[in-house]
Amino acid sequence: METTEKATIVVPGDDPVQIQNSPHLERLKPYGEVVVYTDRPSSDEQKIERVKDADVVINSRGSVTWREDVLSKLPELKLIATCSIGTDMIDLDAASDRGIVVSNQPGRTAPVVAEHTFGLMFAAAKRAAFFTSEMKAGGWPRMDGMMLQGKTLGIIGTGNIGAEMARLGRAIGMKVIAWTYNPSPERAESMQVEFVELDDLLRSADVVSIHAKLTEDSRNLIGARELKLMKPGALLVNGARGDIVNVHALVDALNSGHLGGAAVDVYDVEPVPADYPLLSCEQVVLTPHCADMTPEGVDLLNEGAVDNVIAFLQGEPRNVVT
Question: How is residue 48 annotated by DSSP?
């Protein structure tokens, strides 16, 4: 952008709290006016009203979406900077058509997210949520857990988070195999994994951990057929996006006893409603899309979003998705 004019920078809906109290926002004051809305917009009309004069939007929450019908009403908008790695809340084609730059933060919180996912895997393997629930109800249940050392961890998606998950798996003595859309010998060597076909991974892995980006190709990548290919008693871990796994097929695989458990941080509907099907399953560990929600992770994302805005306003955009 690089202009002497002051920019209007808007955070359109910081709920739950992400960036509104961040000291990093102070760094934007020399560049223009910063407006932060602390509640989520209740409608597209309110969202448009909040950002109609904005040059820059900092999208701190994925629940605030930017589709073609909204973007078409924002002629002043030049940049959407996300407090996230993912960009599925934005219609990238529509943004590109309108010359709106989208900047994300690839790999910035990979260690934070992978650690959370690794913890979910352990919790599912040791049936921590199930045992806790049973004991609180007065029970003393007896059921085997899974020893993870020596088992096979199958990684679906080998970006920064998948690579870190592979490293953590190797650190406890797991054999790691992986699948990605674009495997290469160089990537296999750097990650110290064996790339295999997706069906072979599903048949071989004791734990399948999903880290793929949500695209039209990966939507419902794991459905009833794929779950049936998995080993009896295997675990499914999803820290990527909810729409990658067909939730009804997953519930069937859990309730039938085919899968030993599932650990999930992401959902096809967020927040999940009271009747969400996974909530009725016994052998699940669930967290509310919070894998990067540590003080370190929140600060990293806030810092990265502000860095991206400043770089854009200085005429040197970075981490450009479109």
Answer: H
pTM of the model: 0.91
Pair 321, 9: CB distance under 8 Å? no
CATH class of 110-286: alpha beta
Q: What pLDDT is stored for residue 4 in this prediction? A: 60
Catalytic residue positions, numbered: 241, 270, 289
202 — pLDDT class (breaks 50, 70, 90): very high
d(CA 285, CA 280): 12
The domain locations on the chain are 7-108+295-313, 110-286
Place of tokens 């020399």: 30
Fold annotation for 7-108+295-313? Rossmann fold (3.40.50)
pLDDT at site 5:
81
**Cα separation values, 43 from 47, 66, 119, Å:** 6, 12, 36
Lowest mean pLDDT of 2-6, 71-75, 99-103, 147-151, name the range.
2-6
Cα 13 versus chain centre, distance: 19
Domains 7-108+295-313 and 110-286 in one fold: yes
